[in-house]
Each structure stands twice: as structure tokens, then as C-alpha cells.
Amino acid sequence: MHRTPRWVVMLVCVIAAGLLFVGAVAHITDLFHHGLRPYSWAPGWLNLYWSSLALFDPLAAALLVGGKRRGTDLACAIMTTDLAANWYATYGIQHSTLVAQPGLQRLIAFAVLVLGTAPFIRRHLTD
Transmembrane ranges (predicted)? Predict the structure, then answer.
């Protein structure tokens, strides 16, 4: 962990921040077009959670770009809860499968990136 090159830390932070901004744009677009309940098939609490990511995604991205540990912590919290929410929506509500949900597949890949690299990059960031 101590030997993670600085350029790797910066690259991971920039990639994660970019993908968080992409997610923020999607959630902001949903808010503008559909309000706080963009998915009529989902319960209110789930819609509210996804809508809240319009605030939390860019916040985590900005903290990562600023080199803050809180950015890594927030990104990990977002990815863990977003993965759980989407997994529940896919299997518990829509009765679908991972194979039929490319969005969930991409989210899993992003979660692996964020959660898998967090221990290695976090120590290189500032409080």
C-alpha cells in the first residue's frame, strides 16, 4: 500500500470522479424531467435515494479531485448503497437478472474499481 505510485492515485481519482459526474448528470437529468419520482415502478424511498445522488455524486467527485480522503469514503458509501439499491430493484422489484441489466453490470464494474482501489489510494490523500 505504501508503494502505490502517485500517478496511479491521481489516475484512479480522476477516473472515479469522472464516472461519478456521469452518474450525477443522469440523476440531475432525471430530476429535471421527472421530479423526485423518476421511476414510477419503484417505491418512494428508492426514488428519493436515487434523486439524492444528484447531490452526493458530484460532492464525492469534487472531494476526490481535491485529493480528500472524505471523497474516497463518500464514493465507497455511494457505491455500496447504490449497488444494494440497484440489486434490490433488479431482483426484488423487477424480477430481472444481471444478464438482462447492462446498467447493473456497469455499476458492479465501477463498484469494484472504487472499493478495490480505496485502501491503496486513501492513504495518499489528505484529511
Answer: 7-28, 48-67
